[in-house]
Specification:
Blueprint lengths: L1 E3 L2 H13 L4 E6 L5 H13 L2 E6 L19 H10 L4 E3 L3 H4 L18 H4 L3 H16 L3 E5 L3 H13 L5 E5 L19 H22 L5 H13 L4 E10 L13 E9 L2 E8 L3
Parallel strand pairs: 1-4, 2-3, 2-5, 3-4, 5-6
Antiparallel strand pairs: 7-8, 8-9
Helix pairs in contact: 6-7, 8-9
The chain binds adenosine monophosphate.
Adenosine monophosphate binds next to helix 2 and strand 5.
Amino acid sequence: MKVIETVSEMKSYAAEQRDAGRGIGLVPTMGYLHEGHLSLMRASATQCDVTVSSLFVNPAQFGQNEDLDKYPRNFERDCELAEGAGVDVMFTPTNEMMYPEGYRTYIQVEGWSGLLCGVTRPIHFRGVTTVCCKLFNICLPHRAYFGLKDAQQCLIIQKMVTDLNMDVEIVPMPLVREPDGLAMSSRNVYLTADERRDAARISQALFAARDMIAAGRTDAETIRNAMAGHITASPLARIDYIELVNTRTLAPAAQAGPGTLVAAAVFFGATRLIDNIIIEG
Ligand code: AMP
């Protein structure tokens, strides 16, 4: 696996691959890789001629009191895992390269960036769309792979690509879970043993919500209350939000049904975890 550290080298490599007629797949990550990331990499390696993954802890998507400085990092291990998953190029730019002195251009998907996670993280999605747009311009992917662990992120990036006529296909990939149901996340490493045990309550509440909906109990308020009750049975949990929205419009759903996104963000100590399910139909 080739490691590319500069924007200029990455751009020329990508342009060469395009000129040679090769299909490029991109998997953007912030590193500290786990099976969720690797599933995206394997899909790209299977479907594209060349797989580029980026490893960049994007400062533009972190608020002032968030975990930018302590975000977990392990470059050597990430490279080994990525190579094993079929990545051809790991792109690892520095902050200074991505946001040089005088940088002032940002992309924002209006409205949607302020919903769900955007309520308590108001600049987050502006940072995500900006860095993804930059990565698309630098790595020139035909396809870019995103996990449904971050369902709102997938929807926002898809919207940006559609609205700005970008020439890249966004491929949403299934959420990968730990054996007890907890959504895999680089941030799970922050959890104490007790928090880690109780964090499984988030997915348990989501699965129970899916069962309620399948049984015809579709009132959003009832579902939210049942979920909140199950999660806050742990004294370690503090709910940021539990929402039911339409996956196409992100508008609140009063009644759940096919196409409803049930999404939750819950703090365990200082660690904020997110998870969701999409109701199929
Ligand atoms: P991150 O490094 O957390 O920014 O994630 C990079 C990519 O991996 C994003 O597209 C995430 O949605 C995806 N991802 C993270 N965790 C999971 C997971 N548990 N299952 C599937 N995809 C994931």
